[in-house]
Specification:
Strand content: 25-35%
Structural class: alpha+beta
Shape: globular
Order of helices and strands: EEHHEEHEHEH
Helix content: 25-40%
Length: 120
Amino acid sequence: MKYVLLSADGEISVFSVPNKVAYNLQKYCLEFCCNWLYQSPEAAKFRVQMGDTVGVCYDEKDFIDYLNQYICDEQSTLIATPVVVSCNGCLAYSQSKIKGLSIYSMESAYSLFHKHYMSV
């Protein structure tokens, strides 16, 4: 298990996830927020109809639930939340523990997805 930093709403949280997820964090996050949320029948509760458009509403804990229920046998867990970012950009959660961790903002993935797929 490895620690990773995740954010879907601006706050950063530390999670313990299986090694295969930590080493391929972007791949798993993109699969969750760009495919699974929109296509899986199990993800219907995350979909919101906005006129003619369907959007999704989720956070990093929903991603962890997805990993635990559908992807990995090893259970991912929350370690600390929120991780405070100080004014000079340093993370306040024990820097020795987070140095070199993978970080992923699902907001970025969502924006990337919509810029790429919704503009065609």
